[in-house]
Amino acid sequence: MPEKTIFLIGPEPSSLRELLAAQGYQVRCFSSSQAALAALPEADLLILGRDHRELFEELTRAARGIPKLVVSADGSTRKLGPWLRQPLAFPVHEPSDKDILAYAARLLKEHAQMERAEQMRSSMTTMKEELAFFEQMNRVLTSSRDINEALCTIMRRVKDLTGAEAWSVLLADESSGDLVFEKTVGKMKRKIKKFRLKPGEGIAGWVAQKGVPAVVSDITKDPRFSKRVDRISHVNTRTVMSAPIVSQGKVLGVLELINKKKGDAFTERDLEILMKFVNQAALAVEKIALQQKLEELAITDDLTNLFNTRYLNRSIENEIQRSNRYNTSVSIIFMDIDHFKDINDTHGHLVGSKVLVEIGELLITELRSVDIVARYGGDEFVIVLPQTTLHNALAIAERIRKSVESGVFLVDGGYNLTITASFGVASYPESSRSKEELMRLADESMYNVKHRTRNGVYAII
């Protein structure tokens, strides 16, 4: 236990001082309460002597929170009203030195218990606040697909707890290793977003490279600081605190706080707070990156490895926007295999699936790399032809029709199947004015062929 300091204020026998010192206490003697006033922050316990004339209001206020043993010469407590209204203020009448020693030990013990209880209450409050925040973060991570929303939730909390003026989140670019400003909040210039730091550049770059946090009290004295970032951000940076976002030994990015309010520097306690939230940031980055990868996987058809309808719809929208921007055409071809049900009924669905795979491979070989081929469902395929007029799209559809008609499928399996297909073509803006109309016309054109001749190409103009 650390050595406790006891103030003896007023006339007390030297034997009491010797007795307290023998018990391991640091004892300081003051002739009056006024003399002790300036040194009160150093006191763990006050023992006020039998002469109470010096007990005035100023000392009462200043000594609040410090245990006090008040020795009464006449047994009266009338003069001790201000003291008795404070916790751990204990009056005694004509005690012996040993009684004072026992009372002092008791008061110090009770004071330590009260401090522990207060610390526990404070810790419980902090834990409840942190639990509520982590529950909020779990909800955000469960519902959000936007990395900015998750990271903003984290950094707003850290900013409030540390009193920072501004903050940034920088994410690592896997291809280059650069740090990219993903999100900045505070007095930060807008164009700093997407600004890049080279590996090791600036304090954030150093943190990412080393994989350890950094607290810089005065950036003017730190050679790691990048003036280039300060100029871009238009923030007069004074102090910086950075921590790496690490998962499975890999640095995903950096959390950075800039300038503590009132001109203070960030402390080790501030860094402890920031580090509590680093794991949440890593979870956010990992989860949303995984979602993006899953979405990329979700744009392909499991059977044929062609694009699926989700990607098809997005592509048509993008190509129409490109068409409007550059005053070009975009065409689509709807294709349906003729009598595909007969293949399934005669040879089984496994053979039918293999036919679809070979049809997909044929389409890829017949088209340009910029063209988009998607399985629309069942035995239907859709082809998107960027910068292609209706006339040229009809020619492409006819070429594919002939390739399907002349091809022999499932040769390796010994089936040697011959197949035909029906094609419908439409173009934007030549024959349609919207994505919906473009797809409807191509679909209707295809069904026009199926219900008449099959094995043909048609366009509604």
Give a structural overview.
With 461 residues, this protein is of the alpha/beta class. Helix content is 46%, strand content 21%. The protein is built from 14 helices and 16 strands. A six-stranded antiparallel sheet has the order 8-7-6-11-10-9, sandwiched between helices. Helix 11 crosses helix 12. The chain is rod-shaped. The mean pLDDT is 84.
Key traits:
5-stranded parallel beta sheet, 6-stranded antiparallel beta sheet, 16 strands, 461 residues
Shape: rod-shaped
> What's the helix count?
14
Count of beta strands:
16
- Following the backbone from N to C, one meets helices and strands in this order, namely EHEHEHEHEHHEEEHEHEEHHEHHEEHEHE
**Helix content percent band:** 40-55%
Largest sheet: 6 strands, antiparallel
The proportion of strand residues reads 15-25%
Strand order of the largest sheet: 8-7-6-11-10-9
Low-confidence stretches: none
- Using only C-alpha atoms, the radius of gyration works out to 40 Å
Mean pLDDT: 84
Helix/strand-derived class? alpha/beta
Distance N to C terminus: 94 Å
Structure described in brief:
The protein is α/β, with parallel strands linked by helices and 461 residues long. The protein has helices spanning 14-22, 33-37, 57-62, 81-84, 97-143, 147-162, 202-210, 227-233, 268-297, 309-326, 340-347, 349-366, 390-406, 435-450; strands at 5-9, 26-30, 45-48, 68-72, 89-93, 164-172, 179-185, 196-197, 214-216, 240-247, 250-260, 330-337, 372-377, 380-386, 421-428, 457-459.
